[in-house]
């Protein structure tokens, strides 16, 4: 089976941990933040800025009304979002052509679809995601339960919109993935080993 | 992890094959048609009849209008559907209490929820399901492509309605399962081995 692996994941579901462990067992490169660093290098835009653009779908341009006619307005922010996505696609393809590897997020399942990647989606119950966020939180991050839930929903909403904008597919729709893993009651270490066996 | 395993599956997705293989590797009983035979025995209803009732959600009773008042009508067909479901629940619980085992369909994931089963959902693309149906079809079953697709959609619609009627959950909703497996590109034998390793 393909050893180019892509992981889509809900925020707080442990998808990144699953990816990290899986890439270690299979001894293949793991790409996540590395892609942002590469885009930043090739576009000369600061990493933080690239990250922010990649977390939101581009804002659509809007027509303006002058007299009786509508004119589309060039929207430089939207344009930049699309350019960063194109650069991201180029870099992801380049990485996947070099060797077997694993990508977390970034629409990699769609970008690499003609290379037949093994596509995983990781999800969990809201309570489980909140617990994982709490366990991993920096000491200075003290959100109330309600604030944390709002943050999780907000991040996933952005991921969903971003994915749908560029792929025209529904984020998390099971037909777009080969395996969907619920980490609510799952030991991620054991799951990583099971998937590694399947792909070995 | 729990070795009481439940498998929900789309028609033609290979869920039954995955279940059969998994139960063989784990050397645990596999229950599918066996449940119908048990219900038939305990209710003295013919197996074929039990099967038919279990493939459809009960038809809701309807109120009738007499003068200015509405009276609910006893609906014996609906009543029998519910009684068969209750008998099915009793038998499934009895089987699960006896030993580790695997159930295909029958809302077993819901019926056994307090026993913390490992819940799998098996699905595939329409083309893949049609191909599997063709490969397994009896020689006398010659449906056109359109007829076969209609049959697949119809059976899954009934499964979905049946499941939702008794569990109040959405059939195939990923949060109701621990693992969702897309068999479109998957070798079912290898997948069965991987899940067996995970649960061993």
Question: Which labels suit this protein?
Answer:
homodimer, 200 residues, alpha/beta, two-stranded antiparallel ribbon
Report on the structure:
Two copies of one chain form a homodimer. Chain A is built from eight helices and seven strands. The mean pLDDT of chain A is 88. Chain A has helices spanning 15-26, 33-43, 47-54, 76-98, 108-111, 126-136, 145-167, 188-199, and strands at residues 4-9, 30-31, 63-66, 69-72, 101-104, 118-123, 179-182. In chain A, the strands form two sheets. In chain A, strands 2-5-1-6-7 form a five-stranded parallel sheet, sandwiched between helices. In chain A, strands 3-4 form a two-stranded antiparallel ribbon. By secondary structure, chain A is α/β, with parallel strands linked by helices. In chain A, helix 1 packs across helix 8 (188-199) and helix 2 packs across helix 4 (76-98). In chain A, strand 3 and strand 4 form a beta hairpin. The radius of gyration of chain A is 18 Å and the shape is globular. Chains A and B meet through strand 7 and helix 8 of A and strand 7 and helix 8 of B. Strand 7 (179-182) of chain A pairs antiparallel with strand 7 (179-182) of chain B, so a sheet runs across the interface.
List the helices and strands and how they pair.
Two copies of one chain form a homodimer.
Chain A: E1 4-9, H1 15-26, E2 30-31, H2 33-43, H3 47-54, E3 63-66, E4 69-72, H4 76-98, E5 101-104, H5 108-111, E6 118-123, H6 126-136, H7 145-167, E7 179-182, H8 188-199
Parallel strand pairs in A: 1-5, 1-6, 2-5, 6-7
Antiparallel strand pairs in A: 3-4
Helix pairs in contact in A: 1-8, 2-4, 6-7
